[in-house]
Structures are given as C-alpha cells and as structure tokens.
Amino acid sequence: MVIFEPGAGCGGGLGCKGLVLEPLLEIKAAAVARGYGAAGGRGLPLRPGAWKLHRRAPLAVPGLITTTSRKLDREQQDEHILEVTVTDNGTPPKSTIARVIVKILDENDNKPQFLQKFYKIRLPERERPERERNAKREPIYRVIATDKDEGPNAEISYSIEDGNEHGRFFIEPKTGVVSSKKFSGAGEYDILSIKAVDNGRPQKSSTTRLHIEWISKPKPSVEPISFEEPFFSFTVVESDPAAHMIGVISAEPPGTPLWFDITGGNYNSHFDVDKGTGTIIVAKPLDAEQKSNYNLTVEATDGTTTILTQ
C-alpha cells in the first residue's frame, strides 16, 4: 500500500509524510472505517471527501490512497489516522485492518498578523542631553506579529518601512522592539510604518503603523510611586497563544500615569508588558521542556522616578 498527498516531494500541492506498507492482496472490498485526530483520540471524523481509496490503482499499485480535490489544512488538523479494511476472495472471506498515519506538511499559506491593526502610544517628552553623542538608544514600544504556519514559514522579521527619514528610530528584527535616540518635545508626533515578513517561500508580509505622541512630563506625584506587591507571581500554560494575558503589574498611587518595561529575565523575548497598563502577555510560543520558570524584572516610571519589581 502506498499513501501520498499531492505536494512538494509527492507530486505537487501540499506535501506529506506517509506510512508505506508492503503491497496487499487484490482488494475485493475496502473502506476507510474511521479517522483520528493528532492526539490519537476517537471522535474526530474524517472530512467527507478528503481521501480516496483506489481498489484497483493505476500502474498496478493496489490499495493506493490519494487526496481528492478538497484542500487539506494543516492549521486545522496536522495528522490524520485512517483505518482501511482489506478482504480477500477466499471462502469464507478473511479480512484485516491497516492503520495509516498521514502527516500534513506546512506550506506558507498564512501571512504574519499584527496583534493590532495600528498602535497608538503617548510617551513623556525626551530632553536633549548636554552631549548628544553620548545619548543612549532607549526602548519605546514593542510590536508583535504572529503566523499560523510553522517552522521557517512562521519565523518573522521586522523592519521600519516609512516614517524614519532621519534614521533616529531602530527596530530589533527578531523581537519587534522599537527604540530611539530621538529627542522630542511635547506636542510632537511620529508615525512609523512597520513591516513583518515571514521566512517562507514565497515570503508573505503585513504592515502596521505605530503612532507616537510626545507629551509633557507629568508633575511628580505627591506620594512616592510603589508597586502594590513586593513580588508578583503568575502561572501560564505552554499552549497559551500569543497575546494571552498572564497578569497585571499594579502600582500606587492610583491614577498616576506610569510607563512599564521588562528590563531583565525575558529569555528569548517570550513575554511583553503593555507600556501603559502593566499587563504581562505571552509574546512568543512557550516550551515548558525548554524552560519552565522565568524571573522577569519589570520597571515602572512616572517620567521622573523609576522603580523595579520581579
């Protein structure tokens, strides 16, 4: 029995990995009995018309299983388990069942999608230092895009496409963190067009805009700013998707404008914090086997005073 799904390496289309068995006896009666999901559990029926079993296959290959014209979608189901019943011509007829595992390979049929259609942030003005050449590049914001594909097709790179005529803004290609040495006064605006492109063939991309409004530094709070807890502890499941909210880093006094950043412990940039609310989210897929504990350092500032927590 030969199983294939038309595709790259299998003759065009999606491509697959199949289980190849020895040629069977002439098939008198054969039927796909049931289907299973990727976890091997029953109760996930085959999509009607997705598979065809040839009782007398061309080129003298008996028991050939092919796909039909219905498209397979790896993002919906990446593994199919088929059961084929084979009956001989004897008297009485005897039969056996073969289980066939078909793994659907990925093709680059999804483009990166940003978590927001556009981003709008308000940041405190940045004063020009006495020695401009010594100015450090400071992180401003992080944009995040996700891709439903897998492997290289889901690897995303970021770039600034427009709005950076003077080259004062930078973006980390792998994380989407935007930083700048720009000195901006209250009332100024910057609008950056940011592109996310995957590593598939052909490559797919999408764009978003980051609107930055520079505001006057708030007056220092009468009460010193502080976190509501000395330490924060949250739990996350490795299957939680990007943008899943993990928890909120809260500070006092209430109503004080604050800006948050993760300044340490963010291994491989798996997490992000909302600049204005302190909400921690998943930024990239997690793997508990690779790393199961993170100790993040979060910074909060009112534009004058800066505090840290873990």
UniProtKB/TrEMBL annotation:
UniProt subcellular location: Membrane
BP term (GO), one: homophilic cell adhesion via plasma membrane adhesion molecules
Name of the protein: Protocadherin Fat 1-like
PROSITE patterns documented for this protein: CADHERIN_1, CADHERIN_2
Keyword terms of this UniProt record: Calcium, Membrane, Repeat, Transmembrane, Transmembrane helix
Primary site of residence: membrane
Gene Ontology terms: cellular component: plasma membrane
InterPro entries: Cadherin-like_dom, Cadherin-like_sf, Cadherin_CS
Domain Cadherin: 36-114, 115-232, 228-302
A Gene Ontology molecular function term of the record: calcium ion binding
